[in-house]
Amino acid sequence: xxxxxxxxxxxxxKRFPLIFEKLEEHGEIDVVIETKPEPLIxxxxxxxxxxxxxEEGDHVRLEIREPEIVPGSCPGASTIFRPKLEIxxxxxxxxxxxxxxxxxxxxxxxxxxxxxxxxxxxxQWCDYAEKCLGDKYEDxxxxxxxxxxxxxxxxxxxYIKLES
Length: 164
Ligand SMILES: [Zn+2]
Fold this sequence. Notes:
Helix content: 25-40%
Bound molecules: zinc ion
Largest sheet: 4 strands, mixed
Order of helices and strands: EHEHEEHEEEEHH
């Protein structure tokens, strides 16, 4: 059973602390309140909670649930969990390169040069990336770090060219 917190008639500055305290304790609660509390809903969303709101006669009920994150369920992580084969053009020779969307470097079969790709995914900044990626998290972060280092090297070489 989900605990129901009725905050109607309660002083406004006591509501939010109570709601967050109960959430810490139970993980999920229902809140009965007079009207739709936009600031509260925003705060809850910012913390990753799922909020459903229902009108029930003269009050509203908020169903506040902890997000269930199943690794790979986020569409943004699909480039990593369900990589697709795509055809890219080699920037060196113009030949076709087959690349899986989770690969950052591919050696061109035509000219033998290494081509670096970006990983196009929200896991680079998403707060839930660690949960969302599960076992793949460390691998992906290592890859992204390598990618950053390579980019820095590239930028640096540009800089040197400019100077000389
Ligand atoms: Zn090539």
